[in-house]
Write a structure and sequence with these properties.
With 251 residues, this protein is of the alpha/beta class. It contains five helices and 14 strands.
């Protein structure tokens, strides 16, 4: 359960600041000093960070069974956002002096390192068999008619890929779908009873498996859905989003 919605909080903060600036520019006499209000902007990442820490611990139900999960990516993102809020709020209130450039000099190289690791972990794109590459355009895979699903890599760069697995015919063993979206999006529709192992990660983007979403500076989790002991046919979805989004949802 979300005790506070970060999007709503940010919207309210922007709304209040906008109203104050408008009244000030119109010459309306208000007791609130605009600069003093703007100094408190780090409260937003503070509250959002605390909210994300809370949300990184939760539970989900599948097949009538409740499972507790821990979203490491959301927890790390929360700590980073929380640190930004603490550092800037403390500086703005004169509680301590800190060189904020040092913070960003560390964060941005770490983000680039995470992006590199994420891309290296992906499968190499191959035009043979399954797989699609969409650059500043779109691609559609599957549909309502039966079709053979093969392992392959799907790469969307500033473009989009839509996949419909509702009528896909699975081969024996494990079929691996490697999905990478960079400044683009990939949407996958799956049937409710599909045996799937989902591994998602995001860097400055978002990945969603059904109603479970991860995103922010870094996010990710692993989920097994409809996997029974001795399953002969399994789809493994490895999804990564970099400044983009990947969504897997039931048809």
């Amino acid at each position: 359960m979300r005790f506070l919605n970060g999007r709503v909080l940010f919207g309210l903060a922007v709304l209040v600041i906008g109203i104050i600036l408008l009244l000030s520019n119109l010459g309306v006499d208000i007791d609130i000093e605009v600069r003093q209000v703007l100094r408190l902007w780090p409260v937003i990442p503070l509250v959002v960070g605390l909210n994300w820490i809370y949300l990184s611990f939760g539970s989900t139900s599948a097949g009538g069974e409740s499972k507790v999960y821990f979203s490491w990516g959301q927890f790390i993102t929360a700590l980073i956002v929380l640190a930004i809020g603490v550092v800037f709020l403390g500086r703005n209130l004169g509680l301590f002096e800190v060189d904020t450039s040092l913070l960003f000099n560390i964060i941005w190289p770490l983000i680039l390192i995470m992006i590199g690791i994420s891309l290296i972990r992906g499968r190499a794109f191959s035009g043979k068999g399954g797989g699609r590459f969409a650059f500043m355009g779109g691609a559609n895979v599957g549909g309502a008619e039966p079709w053979p699903l093969e392992s392959g890599s799907y790469f969307a760069l500033m473009g989009g890929i839509e996949m419909d697995l509702t009528a896909a015919e699975l081969k024996q063993g494990e079929t691996v779908l490697d999905l990478t979206a960079i400044m683009g999006g990939i949407e996958v529709k799956i049937p409710k009873d599909l045996p799937v192992v989902y591994e998602g990660s995001a860097v400055l983007g978002g990945v969603t498996f059904k109603n479970q979403e991860d995103g922010g500076i870094i996010g990710g989790r692993k989920i097994e859905n409809n996997i029974s002991e001795g399953a002969e046919k399994v789809v493994r979805i490895q999804a990564r989003a970099i400044m983009g989004g990947v969504e897997i949802k039931e048809a």
